[in-house]
Amino acid sequence: MNTTEKKPQVVIIGGGFGGLYTAKALKNAPVEVKLIDKRNFHLFQPLLYQVATGSLSPAEIASPLRLVLRHHKNTQVILDEAVDIDPANKRVILHDHEPIDYDFLIIATGVSHHYFGNDQWQFDAPGLKTIEDAIEIRRRIFMAFEAAEKETDPQKREAWLTFAIVGAGPTGVELAGAIAEIADRSLMGDFRNIDPSDAKILLIEGMDRVLPPYKPELSASAAKALTKFGVTVLTKTMVTDITDTTVTVRQGEEIEQIPTRTVLWAAGVKASKMGQIVAKATGAKLDRVGRVIVEPDLSVPGDPNIFVIGDLANFSHQGEQPLPGIAPVAMQEGQYLAKAIQKRLKGQPVEPFEYESAGSLAVIGHQEAVVDLGFVRLSGFIAWIIWVVAHIYYLIEFDNKLVVMVQWAWHYVTRGRGARLITGEGTLGKDEKVVTMRQEIATR
């Protein structure tokens, strides 16, 4: 009698919130799990802006996948990149590994930056999605102050001390508030030829208010707090061009060219290339940013064994708009799928996915945040405390929870930033290779 019958194979592509929470929830399930990611760590993206602004170090918001899942005896982590899927033979094609068979395939590869057809801007206006992005943005922010300290020309110095953030969603608001705090508090007394508080922080938004997905009263509270921190909020303003020395904006019929050496992008996202791969392999439809339009059970139309979750999924079965691309949605989708797979294995019916919102959070700066809990909307200090507690709670490892809590407590008292290291070489915009790549993109 064969007692070693092969268990159902669950393959997960992506170790972000959706993929990791699926794997964690399958710990005791009668399946074999293979988690594939081209990075060996899970990144807590909601705090990535704190790495970009010197409050935290990368290791404090990243957890090795093998460490997180080491007690999951039914789970294997594979460090590789999925380059294709073969639904007919139920296989995942990897870049540097033999194909992997699956019974259930879960794709959670997220999104990247979207420059709305102006990909040449990426060299002068980096976005914030990866550890590398955060380190590059941190370098640009602190190098700007260093360059201003050496600059003798007043106009050039002003350009170095002008920071433009494009997009006033949560990431843009958080970056603007953090840079304002750096300029006004963290660098106070560090320089001799400049006053960091002279820095200009511009937050540029095409819509009529900051935090457009939030309720109007919370958007108004956020704008008021940003103004208090010294941020200039430019709404109904479109960016028409970005170079390594200027950002050009249009407000109504007026066009203005603003000298600045630091532009940061927080204006849009597009789906990872796995969206196109899924569409080609299964015939699934994509939305305008490349997300896969999924069924109520998160499966791909026409293939009940392939699921797409997290930021890569367009789930439009609950409310007028698709579910937002935020961590709690991906977490709940992963936990739902783990239960759904086990129910299917038992022959039990599976109910549609339904997201239970715990609220929306966005931090503006020291003791300033906005929170929408559904039954109550808060701003100011109490909202900031809720934001702090929620983010510490959802960090993956206990070590990270403890370190971040201590760091934040120390920063609260001192207003300092302990990770102000400038790494990387030179100024990206002056590198000949980058100039060539920029020209190639512009001529496509």
Short recap of the structure:
The chain is an alpha/beta fold and 444 residues long. The chain has helices at 17-25, 48-52, 65-68, 131-150, 154-160, 170-186, 216-228, 274-282, 327-345, 381-394, 398-414, 432-442; strands at 9-13, 32-37, 41-43, 62-64, 75-79, 82-86, 91-94, 100-101, 104-107, 111-113, 162-166, 200-204, 231-234, 238-242, 246-251, 254-259, 262-265, 269-271, 292-293, 299-300, 303-308, 313-314, 360-365, 368-372, 377-379.
CATH topology of the largest domain: FAD/NAD(P)-binding domain
Number of domains: 2
Oligomer: single chain
* Cα radius of gyration in angstroms: 23 Å
β-sheet strand percentage: 15-25%
User: What portion of residues is helical?
Assistant: 25-40%
**Sheet bearing the most strands, described?**
6 strands, mixed
Structural class: alpha/beta
Shape verdict: globular
Low-pLDDT regions: none
Biggest sheet strand order reads: 5-2-1-9-21-20
Question: How many β strands by DSSP?
Answer: 25
The first-level CATH class name of the largest domain: Alpha Beta
Q: Helical element count? A: 12
Distance between the termini: 63 Å
The CATH architecture of the largest domain can be named as 3-Layer(bba) Sandwich
Average pLDDT: 91
